[in-house]
Write a structure and sequence with these properties.
This protein is of the alpha/beta class. It has 16 helices and eleven strands.
């Protein structure tokens, strides 16, 4: 028997007095002896196998508080039984459960040592069973096979012929089932229906959202393509309103005949008995939506002449000015202004950039740092401004307050990631977008520039519809 089974047998019988430690061995009465540090078949939830000495100390101190047990076990340098393994291990050792998943079949680490009394009894039996050598006896032969009878379980061997069926039954009775790959994958006391329900619900919500979006797109398409057949005088409620307040139909009061047509050769008479009225008003034909020429966005709001303008600070000690604006906004590479000043000796007042990010064809922009020289038409072309967080930056601007400025112009505050929060304290009170850069990771600059252009496109679409570029 293995050490764990022997310990379980003695624990069920409450025969702890028979378990004694002699030197480096545990003696279970006169029947079994095992090394103290031998590993048992019980594996903890942490992954290691419990040793025999740790389990013996545990079963002898089950009534002790867990904290006191751990202190005494550590003082004896024994492996402690964890709190999560305490109950299932005790249930198995005391016989409340027959088996548990924590038990693993292990090859025997060392042969079991029989006790002294067993060795003496086996020696006596071997002496008694020795037969006298009879060479003349034909029934005697060294090749005669022996079988293991049921008495062999108790250590007794009787020389008989082998009974194969009994031998197989003997082996099967002592077989220990080993878990296969299917049983290992099974999770006891686990239910994954909640996860399946959650995933199914997400898929259903996604499907409904897609269907609603498609229905909305179809409704928009139908409303755009459907001809505009609405007529002011086709509304019965409106005609009733005019009759109640004016005493007559508004069309007749104003001298308008809604039955007339502007198509040559086609005229309807509302009442043939009435004399024809002389229409002295000049009317323009009302075309249906299918007959109207396409109206472009530029015809609704006049397109401004000149490229859009981006304002940057004129100060030298700033992250972005006309020195490095072209490299940053056009190529997505940030270079400090002091380094660019060594290459470009004279600071430019105007820099022209070609935006290629997010566009199929390049778009021209102007970067300026002197807002005082801008004309009213130039101010209409200003789309963005990089702010410093200082009030004096907006001095002499043609706006009344910061609310009006950042309602018509998108504000951007450029900062380094590790800058203090105080630098952006004033900016957070304005309607300004904050974009952070890394001081050393230059490959992240392009991401920041793409974020700027995306925010600018969204701002222009929502508030500056007269700027088409």
């Amino acid at each position: 028997m293995d050490p764990l089974s022997v310990l379980r047998e003695y624990t069920i019988r409450k025969d702890f007095d028979s378990i004694k430690q002699v030197d480096d061995e545990f003696h279970f009465g006169n029947d079994y002896r095992f090394p103290c540090n031998i590993e048992t078949a019980y594996r903890s939830k942490q992954g290691n196998l419990y040793t025999l000495d740790s389990l013996v100390f545990f079963v002898k101190n089950t009534l002790m508080k867990h904290t006191e047990y751990m202190q005494q076990a550590r003082s004896l340098k024994l492996h402690t039984v964890t709190f999560t393994d305490r109950k299932p291990l005790l249930d198995y050792l005391e016989g409340r459960v027959q088996t548990t998943d924590a038990i693993e079949l292990l090859p025997p680490a060392a042969p079991l040592l029989p006790s002294r009394d067993e060795r003496e009894r086996a020696t006596v039996r071997q002496t008694e069973d020795v037969e006298e050598y009879k060479p003349d006896d034909p029934s005697y032969g060294p090749s005669k096979r022996l079988r293991l009878d049921a008495d062999a379980v108790e250590g007794e061997y009787i020389g008989k012929e082998i009974d194969t069926s009994r031998l197989v039954n003997f082996i099967r009775e002592r077989e220990r089932p080993i878990r296969d790959r299917d049983t290992i994958l099974l999770c006891h006391n686990k239910d994954f229906r909640g996860i399946l329900t959650m995933l199914t619900k997400r898929e259903e919500e996604k499907r409904k959202s897609d269907e609603q979006q498609k229905d909305t797109e179809k409704m928009v398409d139908v409303s755009i393509l459907a001809p505009n057949t609405s007529n002011r005088y086709a509304n019965v409620e409106e005609k009733t309103f005019w009759k109640e307040h004016l005493g007559t139909d508004a069309a007749e009061e104003l001298g308008i005949d809604p039955t007339q047509s502007y198509i040559t050769g086609f005229t309807k008479q509302k009442d043939a008995a009435k004399p024809a009225k002389l229409d002295v008003h000049i009317h323009r034909p009302v075309l249906q939506s299918s007959q109207r020429p396409p109206v472009s966005l530029s015809s609704q709001k006049a397109r401004l002449e000149g490229p859009p303008i981006i304002l940057v600070p004129s100060a030298f000690q700033t992250m972005l000015n006309t020195y490095n604006a072209k490299d940053f906004l056009e190529d997505g590479v940030y270079c400090p202004p002091d380094q660019k000043a060594k290459i470009v000796l004279k600071k430019p007042d105007l820099v022209t950039i070609q935006r290629k990010m997010g566009r199929d064809t390049p778009v021209k922009y102007e970067v300026r740092d002197k807002p005082t020289v801008l004309s009213p038409k130039d101010w209409d072309r200003v789309v963005a401004v990089f702010v410093l967080g200082k009030e004096w930056q907006f001095k002499d601007w043609p706006f009344k307050s910061h609310v009006e400025i950042f309602d018509k112009i998108m504000g951007i505050f450029l900062r380094f990631e590790d800058d203090s929060v105080e630098s952006a304290k004033v900016v957070k009170q304005w309607n300004v977008k904050i974009i952070s850069l890394s001081k050393h990771k230059r490959h992240q600059d392009k991401t920041a520039v793409l974020e700027f252009w995306d925010r600018l496109d969204a701002f222009v679409r929502s508030r500056r519809m007269n700027l088409v570029f």
